[in-house]
Structure formats: C-alpha cells, structure tokens
Amino acid sequence: MKRMPFERPTQHYDERILHIDEQICELLKQRKEISNNNPGYPPFEYIEKWSISFGLYEDYLKEVFGAFRSEEFYKPVIEPQGFRKHIPILKSLEYGGFFYSLISVRQYSNASVITFNMDWDITRDHSTHSNIPIYFELYVGEEYDCRMDSGTSTSGHSSHNYVISPPLPDDISGMEFIFRKFKEPFENNLIGTEINEIILRAD
C-alpha cells in the first residue's frame, strides 16, 4: 500500500538526549534479534506496572508497543516500472465455498505484479467468515519481498494486487504462490482454521 512521505513534525531537538535515542535504537535492534522478529505484545498488567514505575501514561505505552509491531510496514516501497509482458498462470482452487484464482503475472523491469482473486456465492450463508477480517500474505520464496499493494471487494468477489521484488523469472514453471491467512497485516499468528494456506502452483 502506498504511503505518504513523512514530514518532520518540529524543527526542535534537544541534543542532550541524542545518546539516549541511540540507546533506544540499539535496544530495539536487540529486541528484534532476541525475539526472532516476533515479540508479540506485552500483557496489559506489564504495561500498567511500567506506567507506574517509570511515570509514563499507560495509554501512551500501549501505543508505543503497538507501533513496535509494525516495522514491516515501513520497508522501502518498490513501485513497478517499465511494463514488459504478461505471463499466464491460470490456476485456481475451490475450498469451503470459496473459489481462489490467479490469472497472470505482470512483468516489469523492477518487479512483478499478480492479482489474487476470491469469489463466492452470495446466496449461501458465509456468516462464519464475514465477521473475521482476513488478510492474505503472499510468499514465493526467501529471496523475494511480497507486499499487498491494493485491493477491492464487492458482493461475492474480492481482488488484491501483490508487488513482488525482485521480479520473478519469465519462466515460472514449478513456482508456488502461497497465500497465508492472517487476521490483520504484520500479524505473526495464522488464523486457526482448517486451511491456513492457499497454494497455487504454476505448471
């Protein structure tokens, strides 16, 4: 998803806290490494205790630890440039009343883009699904960065675009496109349903 450039909110900075801010950055790095980049979120009783111990507002600390969980959102964004061609995939999977499909890969000079579709019969009862906000993360291999760029949803159909960088090879035979279900972006726990992954394999 596209982000607006961040503007410095004030020109003031107290240079006396420079060393403290460097220590904060160092501790954030240690926190990420020790937790294998999966720190979770502290129990509220811990936050309440820290609020009292350090004289900080409890709701402020809740926001701070919430922000710690969203580092992935700030990865540099690759904008596809230099369209080259379409590569057909034409793969689908039907499960649990939902029809998942991939039509093609759009190849650019600096990235690839795919559209993941989900269709369902609106006359059937999907109330068990409608109250669960589902976010799909795409995985195609350790060497690729995948991010959801945009999406739309209407009655009986949803469609989401994913940007993959670096670009996929023109020969994608045998590659697997794995869509993992999460309740929200940057969440590390898969939704506890019978099927957590939608796997579509290019022939």
Write a short abstract of this structure.
This protein is of the alpha+beta class and 203 residues long. It is 21% helix and 34% strand.
Which secondary structure elements does this structure contain, and how are they paired or packed?
Elements: H1 18-34, H2 44-54, H3 58-68, E1 83-95, E2 98-108, E3 112-120, H4 127-130, E4 135-139, E5 145-154, E6 157-165, E7 176-182, E8 197-201
Antiparallel strand pairs: 1-2, 2-3, 3-6, 4-7, 5-6, 7-8
State the main characteristics.
about 200 residues, alpha+beta, Immunoglobulin-like, 2 domains, five-stranded antiparallel beta sheet, three-stranded antiparallel beta sheet, about 20% helix, elongated
Sheet having the most strands = 5 strands, antiparallel
Highest CATH level, the class of the largest domain: Mainly Beta
How many β-strands, per DSSP?
A: 8
How do the SSEs run, as a string of H and E?
HHHEEEHEEEEE
As for the CATH topology of the largest domain, it is: Immunoglobulin-like
Placed side by side, the strands forming the largest sheet appear as 1-2-3-6-5
Could you name the ranges where pLDDT drops below 50 across 5 or more consecutive residues?
Answer: 190-194
Radius of gyration: 21 Å
Number of helices: 4
For the terminal residues, how far apart are their CA atoms?
A: 29 Å
Helix content, binned percent: 10-25%
Q: What number is the mean pLDDT? A: 85
The oligomeric state is: single chain
- Rough shape? elongated
- Domain unit count: 2
CATH architecture of the largest domain: Sandwich
**Amount of beta strand:** 25-35%
What structural class is derived from the secondary structure elements? alpha+beta
